[in-house]
Amino acid sequence: MKIGVLALQGAFLEHKQKLSEINIESFEIRNKKDLQQDMQGIILPGGESTAIGKLLKDLNMFDSLKGLISDGLPAFGTCAGLILLAKKIEGCENSHLGLMDITAKRNAYGRQLGSFYTESEFEGIGKIPMTFIRAPYISKVGPKTNILSVVNNKIVAAKEDNMLVTSFHPEITSSNSVHNYFIQNFCKS
Ligand SMILES: NC(=O)CC[C@H](N)C(=O)O
């Protein structure tokens, strides 16, 4: 089992650390060639979705990444990663990869007071710690999307086919449970 972590910008090292804590091998994806490596899943980290989206295009990785995920490669997007996967972004004409039938609202908690910590229920896991940093939430889901967590009446985690997204950052909390959930439920060795 080997997981690729998109490492163009943002919190990719924290994801690698979490994976190593649960004994899962990972590698950084920095260019198109890295996408050809054998992997059983990919993590799209948090950071700045506009910057990551632009780098994917500039580095000519966009179509290969989109193709891999639409062909079934398990993908876990956190925060900016959620925005990259969303079919629609509120207030924007364009999406990025546009593969998951959700609408993302960016910077949904305000810019200044946008970071907070809470503990809340996640379906199939139980109560877990959640850290939100200038986070999006999911304002709409499609018929095939399963909602996994709701905080303050906002959807903050969901899954659809081979894709899992959280608007919070599980990689910077004390728990390994969401990474374990991704590996156990989505990735086949
Ligand atoms: N922590 C994050 O990933 C923030 C996401 C950021 N607000 C964006 O739109 O990309």
TrEMBL record:
Q: Which InterPro entries match?
A: Class_I_gatase-like (IPR029062), PdxT/SNO (IPR002161), PdxT/SNO_CS (IPR021196)
Catalysed reactions listed for this entry:
L-glutamine + H2O = L-glutamate + NH4(+); aldehydo-D-ribose 5-phosphate + D-glyceraldehyde 3-phosphate + L-glutamine = pyridoxal 5'-phosphate + L-glutamate + phosphate + 3 H2O + H(+)
Gene Ontology cellular-component terms listed: cytosol; glutaminase complex
Pathway the protein takes part in:
Cofactor biosynthesis; pyridoxal 5'-phosphate biosynthesis
Q: Does the keyword Lyase apply?
A: yes
Domain of life (superkingdom):
Bacteria
Query: Which sites bind L-glutamine?
Result: G47, E48, S49, R106, I133, R134
What EC identifiers does the entry list?
Answer: 4.3.3.6, 3.5.1.2
- What's the short name of a Pfam family annotated to this entry? SNO
Keyword Hydrolase in the entry? The reply is yes
The active site is formed by C79, H169, E171
Q: Record's family? A: Belongs to the glutaminase PdxT/SNO family.
- State the protein's name: Pyridoxal 5'-phosphate synthase subunit PdxT
Source organism per entry reads Apibacter muscae
Starting at the broadest rank, the lineage of the source organism is: Bacteria, Pseudomonadati, Bacteroidota, Flavobacteriia, Flavobacteriales
Q: Which gene encodes it?
A: pdxT
